[in-house]
Design goal:
Elements lengths: L2 H22 L7 E6 L5 E4 H6 L3 E8 L7 E9 H6 L11 E6 L4 E5 L7 E6 L14 E3 L12 E7 L4
Parallel strand pairs: 1-9
Antiparallel strand pairs: 1-2, 3-4, 4-7, 5-6, 5-9, 7-8
Length: 164
């Protein structure tokens, strides 16, 4: 094997190994999240799809609500920006909205400006899978919104362009 082929193999292993490792530790959870509406292409992610994407970690996220003193938490998941960007083709425009439909059928609507820095989390700050302590394996962590406005168990995000 020539030196250049050997280096190419090492680089490929270095790139693929973390991706394989990320998806290998994912529990076998049946869950889907669909992004549709005013998008260039609707897309549905399985739980395993979400876990295999490039992970992000939010740290020092304040838990702000009316009932408890402020604390700081951490979460691991995939950024909403990444899910919106490809292949759905969604742009963060302050005149656009995102309607989250939850597993129980309820909905919550957010302006896109409220979702900057948001994460679809599947692990807490201690590295525990959310499904272990919750009926829903994923939740929206929106650091710009109070904790009691975060949504648990989204199954669909419908992107809404402004009405003309």
């Amino acid at each position: 094997m020539t030196k250049s082929k050997w280096i190419t193999c090492v680089v490929l292993v270095a790139i693929l190994l973390p991706l394989i490792a990320c998806s290998q530790d994912a529990p076998d959870v049946e869950w889907e999240l669909t992004i549709d509406g005013d998008v260039s292409q609707s897309v549905t992610y399985t739980f395993r799809d979400l876990v295999s994407l490039r992970r992000a970690r939010l740290t020092d996220v304040p838990t702000r609500n009316s009932e408890t003193p402020e604390e700081f938490t951490a979460w691991e998941g995939v950024t909403l920006f990444l899910l919106f960007k490809q292949p759905a083709g969604v742009q963060y425009n302050i005149s656009w909205w995102a309607l989250f439909t939850l597993a129980d059928g309820s909905t919550r609507r957010f302006n896109m400006s409220e979702l900057r820095g948001a994460l679809i989390a599947f692990k807490d700050g201690d590295g525990n899978w959310l499904y272990e302590n919750s009926p829903a394996p994923i939740r929206l962590i929106a650091p710009n919104r109070p904790t009691d406005e975060w949504v648990y168990g989204p199954v669909r995000i419908t992107v809404e362009a402004p009405q003309s």
